[in-house]
Amino acid sequence: xxxKELKYFKTIRDYFEIFLPNQKGASYHTIKNYKICxxxxxxxxxxxxxxKLRDFDFNDTTIELVESFLEYGExxxxxxxxxxxxxxxxxxxxxxxxxxxxITLIDIYLKLMTIPIKSVTKGTVIDFFxxxxxxxxxxxxxxxxxxxxxxxxxMITLYDTGARIQELLNIRIKDISLESSPHIxxxxxxxxxxxxxxxxxxxxxxxxxxxxxxxxxxxYVFFTLHHGERTKMNPDTVQKLIDRYCIMANNVxxxxxxxxxxxxxxxxxxxxxxxxxxxxxxxxxxLGHAQINTTREFYANADTExxxxxxxxxxxxxxxxxxxxxxxxxxxxxxLKKLYSLK
Length: 343
Fold this sequence. Notes:
With 343 residues, this protein is mostly helical. The protein has two domains: 3-120 and 324-339, no CATH class; 131-308, hpI Integrase, Chain A (Orthogonal Bundle). It is 54% helix and 6% strand. The chain contains 15 helices and five strands. Strands 1-2-3 form a three-stranded antiparallel β-sheet, with no helix packed on it. The protein has a two-stranded antiparallel ribbon with strand order 4-5. α3 packs antiparallel against α4 (81-101) and α7 runs antiparallel to α9. The longest helix is centred in the N-terminal third of the chain and has 22 residues, at 3-24. Mean pLDDT is 81; it is low at 302-315 and 320-328.
């Protein structure tokens, strides 16, 4: 590979390893989300242009390419207008950084700035599962398989508690009580604790999963084995697991999305509770929102059907069962991404 062909990926590496964390002070989650976006964009670009990833360069970036990527995401992954705008912002951020370091790239950046931002209707009802969709998803793990039992318990707990994904992965054995008045202590933003009661069905699946292991009180409930040691599971690992079950569910029902995000479990549980009569102040407390206005913005604008069909209690859905690169093979796209901080 010629040096000029590495320019794009060297710039990406500096962007993610130096600029975002050290100069801009971006958070871990922002950097992670920007990496996800750039991976999605580059994977789309190589297929769209019919080239190898290693051959992609700045001059390949056109308005048509970026707009096609955004349209693809909206159609294939059901991105909301807000998600679509965040993807565009991530791409623009990288090209702005690139243009600031190479004046010849300013024209590309300025062209990307002409792509319009989609308007986001304030108060629009958020994405969530229907009860039938959630049941279909939760029916995909094979309960005779130990890892599937873990994954099922994880998805059920994610839904039942309405926890953010990082909150779920922070739960330790000492934080759960599965006997009388079963509940889980969840530590949210600012390490603020909230006690969340859990359903009997959740208790059943957690017990069945935990019976497979001999865990200590300080062990994480959901973990992975790394060199023989139990370590906290990574959110990206959870996302990959969920995506696998989404594809399986889509094979059963083609209307089921092939990709969903972890936060939809939280949205869905909160919407199901609100839809079935739980007052907004209680939903707000249950979600761990510091301000009820946050809850109201997302959930209060329920549609007419939701208001008309509100019932007394939420349906228990879970009734289921280095810099030197000369010696590397740049046709290996996963290696290329790892070398330049995209992985």
